[in-house]
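Shall we go through a protein fold together, starting from nothing but its sequence? Please make up or recall a protein chain and show it to me in full. Go ahead whenever you are ready, and we will take it from there.
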Amino acid sequence: MRTHRTVTAAALTLALATLAPVLAACSSSDSPADKDAVRAVDPRPSGSTASGRTVATYTPATAMSASDLATTVERLKARAAAFGLDGTRIERHGSLITADAPGDSGDRLRQLAATAELTFRAVKGDRAARPADVRQRFNALTCPATGTPPLSEPLEPMPACDSDTGRKLLLGPVVLDGEDVKSAKSDLNTGGGTDWVINLSFTDRGAQDFATVTTDLSQQTPPADQFAILLDDKILSAPTVQQAITGGEAQITGDFTRQRAENLAALISTGALPVRLTVSDVARQP
């Protein structure tokens, strides 16, 4: 098991993407008139040599308004394009949504439905006060965690597994989220090696809040000097903060392949879906 590392290590970390000092660990009808269909216009092949098509059906976990349904369709459209799923059709049928892509695209269509809620939470020390329900969930959590974690409350602390060290961490309330991120792009790690990274650029408000939070964390003692970045309540990185980050940009680095980095950047850039979707069916068609 690897130990926790700083931003200069190959493990998951967070760092400035500039020349500034590096952060150490740095309800709807289903009539034809009410159906939305989106087809990618890029003529390039989807990258799959398999014939036929793959159709995935997505079911909302909770009831969706017409506005949320329309937003979900548009964001799935943007994700399909960013994923390189050219020729994909996104359609709604009442409260259900389907994605129809060329070739054997099941795995990527499953990834397409991720809620992709990006959040930032400070790591709390072992002696931090824990409400009874949080203490119970913390004690019940086994790392590495499997399956989809239950939805957390943004203003409440939560337990989570550090994907790098395998340790259980107690995290504080959300201090920044995906609305504070202006863009996310994948790139090859310029620090050497073959790992890929995700470069984040914050909004003006996000940059100010991030600077404030990292200033405070840099003055804490371990493990309360760590900052966790989560996607759908799963930790991507939990770096140690040694200096305030004031440049408005950051970088998520780790053992990412090009495809993994590109998919993460696409999910972050297109924004979180208004509601969690369940992939209720994936079927191949001739």
Remarks:
- The helical segments are 66-82, 106-112, 132-140, 204-217, 258-270.
- The chain has two domains: 13-26+117-264, 35-114+272-285.
- The chain is about 20% helix and 30% strand.
- The radius of gyration is 20 Å.
